[in-house]
Each structure stands twice: as C-alpha cells, then as structure tokens.
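The records we work with from here on pair a chain with its fold. These numbers are not coordinates but entries in a learned vocabulary of local backbone shapes. To see the layout at work, look at the sequence and tokens printed below.
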Amino acid sequence: MKFDLVAGTTALYLDPVYYDYEYRGRLSDVRFYTDHYLRHADAAAPVLELGVGSGRIALKAVRKGANVLGLDLSTDMLDRCEEGRLKLPKASRDRLRLVQGDMRAFNFEQRFPLISCPFNAFMHLYTNEDAERCLTQIRRHLAPDGLFLLDVLMPDLDYLNRPAFKTFAGVRFKHPRYDCHFTYAEQTAYDAVTQLNQIKLLYDRTDPLESGPPSYVVELSHRYFFPAELLALLHGNGFQVRHRFGDFEGGSLDAQCESQVLVCGLT
C-alpha cells in the first residue's frame, strides 16, 4: 500500500480559508492551550508552538495576553496567520512571531518555558526517526523546568479497519471560498505495519458551475500512536509524562476517547 505522503502532509493546508471554516467549532483545545500559554510564559520567554498553522490557537491566545513564537512548514498557513496577526490590536501584534520551518529541524538558540504541538501535528511525523528528531529539538529548546504539551488522536480500530478506500458519504455544505455547495465524502486506508492512515476527502459540487472546480480531492496522512507506545517514545527521548488526559477538560483516558492529551516535562 503506497501512500502519497507529500500530498498527505500539504494538501489540507493549501486552502487556509476552508481550513478555518472546517474547524471553526473546535474550541476546547483552544481553551486548554491558551490557559497553559498564559500561565507558563511571559514577554521575556514566549511559548514555542510547533504547527502554528493559520493561528487557530495562537491568535486567540495572543489576544488574551500570551506571547507566542509560531513555527510551521506551510507558507500558505503562515500567510493566513499573518493576516490574522495584522488584525490584532496594535499592542498585541508584536507578541506573535511567525517562522517557516520544519519541526524536525529548527534552532532558535534559546530555551522556552513551554513548547506545544497542538491539533495532531505530531501525527505528521510518519516514522520513529521523524518523531525522535522532533523530540530531540524540543528537548534542546525546553527550559529545565519547562513543559511540553501535545495531543494526538486515540487510535479507533473500527475506523482504521474500515474497507480500504470505500466511500463513506458526508454532508452537504456551502464552501466558504467558492460560495457554492458541495457534498463531502471520505475514503481511508490504514497500514497496520507503518501505522499510517491515508485519508481522501472527496468534494463534489452540487450547484451550477459558475466559478470554482466541479469536484476535487484532498489527501491527509496521519501516523497513529498507541498510548503505551507514545509513553515509551517520550520516555526514551528524555521526557516524563506528568499528566495524560482523554480530552481537553482533564478527563480520564480510555478507549472511547477521541484524543490523547499529554503534559510532559524533562526527565
């Protein structure tokens, strides 16, 4: 089973307008990360957010007083975040700095009181080598008493073991960029050896064609981490998991949870 990991890493992030529309109702993680940003960093020592994207979390946190340095691989998402930064009150704009880069290889020559990797961004680390390179950089940049926060999806075996590339219908919606209606459907294929899941998001237009595409496909790749595996990976790379939750309100982790939310320090 051959996955297109380039498309799976980039395609979802080429249209930040649609991305922000799609995840506009996802707020619990924004509250979780913002609360930690405000408690653990200040003007002299910002938060480092890996995978800052369009600023879904960072912009709200900065508006409330946080100081954030955001790293992302996607220039499209960073451009969108910069648009949001310029809309902040003038007094807040300098508290958000954006850098294009790879979370497996960065060097800011400073240490941070808090480093975060929100909204499943860690799942774009498709091999153990990728994950360990990222964790090495985080360890080098984290203050001795600092915190590393991340969340990844809990593996749902019923979902992952669906028939490969069978189409599952979704909803009809009005696209925010094209101002017309599309139907949404999804296909997935999971490789149990590599723990990679390839997702194809299928969009078909239902309105008369005046502008925009009649249909298009977006690919998304995720590497799944099982709970005990993630604990071992973190421990083996110099981190101690201080708290592990099943949601962003501090709930217990169990098999029915959607996310694994971890608060880590250095060992």
The mean pLDDT is 96.
